[in-house]
Amino acid sequence: MNFQYWPYRKIPDAEIATTHLVASNTVHLICFLIKETLMKTEYSSITALPSWQALQNHYQEIKDHHLRELFQDDPLRGERLFVEATDLYLDYSKNRITDQTIQLLLQLANECHLKERIEAMFVGQKINTTEDRAALHTALRAPKDASITVDGKNVVPEIHDVLDKMSDFCDKVRSGMWLGHTGKPIRSIVNIGIGGSDLGPVMAYEALKFYSDRKLTFRFVSNIDATDLVEATLDLDPAETLFIVSSKTFTTLETMTNARSAKDWLQKSLGTDPQAIAKHFVAVSTNAEEVTKFGIDTNHMFGFWDWVGGRYSMDSAIGLSTMLAIGPENFQKLLNGFREMDDHFRSAPFEQNMPVLMGLLSIWYINFFGAQTVAVLPYECYLKRFPAYLQQLTMESNGKHIKLNGQPVDYNTGALYWGEPGTNGQHSFYQLIHQGTHLIPCDFIAFDQALNKLEHHHDMLVANVFAQAEALAFGKTIEEVKMEGVADSLAPHRVFEGNRPSNTILVKRLTPESLGKLVALYEHIVFTQGAIWNINSFDQWGVELGKALAQQIIPELENPQEPVLHHDDSTNTLIQYYRKYRK
Ligand code: G6Q
C-alpha cells in the first residue's frame, strides 16, 4: 500500500502479528479489522471520490430549487425528515436536500470510511497522528465495567478512580467539611484555566446553574489581562475562597501567571504558611511535577491523560468546578447523557444517526454551496456560553488546511461557528441571515419544558424558534408583500427570499443529561466533518506561533534598556510606540 494516503499511523508488521496472537481479545481483533479496512483507504483527495463528483452534479440540479417547491413536491417531508435519538428530536426537513442528496452524502461517508474511523476513535487508536495520541474523550464517560485499552492498559479503572476522588472532594466542600486556613468553610470557587480548561467549565456552570448550589459563588478566570482576576476576586474573602488551577500542561502562560497572582492575593491576607496554599488551592492537571513545584500537594491534584484533548475535556477532572456546582450525582447524569449520545453515534445506522446527518449536512453547505459559517442559536438563556464553547470545539478542531497525509487540502474545511441565545439575536444579527447575501445554515435548539416558569413566556419563546425557521425557509414573495398593500417602491425591501436552511433540535428539558447529549452531539458532528475532510481534528498547531512570538516580545516590552528589535517594521514600530507610553 502507499502510505501517503494512510489516514493513520503506519502499523508495524510486528504489531499486526501480535494482534493475531491475541485475537481472542475482542478489542484487538476489532483494531485489526479496522486497520485492515483502513489500509484500503487510498484516495488522493475526497474531491476525486465518485460520491463527491456526484454531489457536485447534484448541486447543479438542486441549487435553484426553493424550499417552497421541495415542500410542495413532498408535503410530508416534515414528518419524514427527522431523527429522534437519545430523547433529542432533530427536524432536518428545512434543508435544501432531497432523498438523493442524503443518499449521496451517505455514500460519501462510506467512501471516506466513516464507520471504521468512528470505531478507531472508540477503541483508542492513535488517531491524533501528529501528536501520536488517542482521542479518547468517549472513555471519560464509559461505564465502570468497560475496558478500553491505550498502550496495552485498560484506562477505565483510572478514570473512575479520579471520578471517585472528585466526588469525595466535592462532597467535603459542598457540605462545609473542607475548611480554609482560618477554619472557615469554602464559599467561593475560582477556576483558573484557559481554552479547553476554561470554556467547558464556564459553559457547563452557566448551562446548569439551575441545578447548582446557590450558596457557593463561582468565578472563572482565563485572560492574562489583570482585569479578569482582579474583578473576579474583588468581592471575595480569601479565607473562604478555593482556587482550582486547571491546566493539562501546568505551563500555560495565562493560567500560571494568574495562578501566581492568585497565590499572592491569598498570601497577602492569609500569610505565607504553606498550609494556606494546601487549603485554598487544588490542581487539575496531567503534570504532577509542575503542580508540586507550584506548591500544591499532589493529593489535591485531580489527574487526566494526554489522550483527552483540552476542548474535549469538560467531562474529565477539568469539570471539577462543574461537579462542585451541581454535585457528584448530577455530574454522573451529565456523563450518562454524553454516553447515550456516544452509543447512538457508534451504533445507529448513518441514515438515522443524528451527529452523522448533521455533520454531512454541514459538509453539503460548506463544500457545495460555499457556506462559510454555521449559526447555532439556542433558545435558552442558560446556554448563553454554548456558542462560545462550540467555537473552540469546531474551529480549533477543524480549522486545518493539511490532510492526514501531510498534503494541503483542495476543498474548504472548518466553518465559522457562532451564535447567541434567542430571542436576543433576532433583534440584532438575524437581519443578515434573512435578507443578507450570505448563506448561513442555522441550528435552532429549543426545549419543550421551561426550567423557570412565568406564564406565557415559554410558549412565546418557542413560537419564535418555529417562526424563525419557517421565515428563513419560506420567506415572503413580492406578490405576498404587494397583497399586503405595500407601496411598489418599498416592496423589494420587504421581500424575504427564503430558502435559508436550518435544523431544529428539540430537547425535552435542559438537564445535566441533556447537556451531555448536546455537547456529545456536536463533538461527533465535528468528528464526522474531520473524517470526511481527512484532517486531524485533534491537534491545534495553529495556536503555537503566536504563543512563541509573545514569549519573545514580553522581554522586549519590559526591558529597561532600549532593545534591539528584529521584527518586521510594523511590529518594531508598535513595540517602540507602546514602550514610549507604558508606565
Ligand atoms: C484545546 C487546546 C487548548 C488548551 C489550552 C489550555 O483543545 O489544547 O485550548 O486547552 O491551551 O491548555 P492547558 O490546559 O495545558 O493549560
Describe what you observe in this structure.
With 583 residues, this protein is an alpha/beta fold. It contains 23 helices and 13 strands. It has helices at residues 13-21, 26-38, 50-62, 67-73, 77-80, 99-111, 114-122, 156-175, 199-207, 226-233, 253-270, 274-280, 288-294, 320-326, 328-347, 354-369, 386-398, 430-435, 457-474, 478-483, 512-533, 544-558, 569-581; strands at residues 82-85, 88-91, 149-150, 153-154, 188-192, 217-221, 241-246, 281-285, 301-303, 373-378, 416-418, 442-447, 502-507. The strands form three sheets. It has a six-stranded mixed sheet, sandwiched between helices. A five-stranded parallel sheet has the order 6-5-7-8-9, sandwiched between helices. Strands 3-4 form a two-stranded antiparallel sheet. Strand 3 (149-150) and strand 4 (153-154) form a beta hairpin. The radius of gyration is 26 Å and the shape is globular. Bound molecules: glucose-6-phosphate. Residues 194-197, 247-249, 252, 255, 309-311, 396, 540 line the site of glucose-6-phosphate (G6Q).
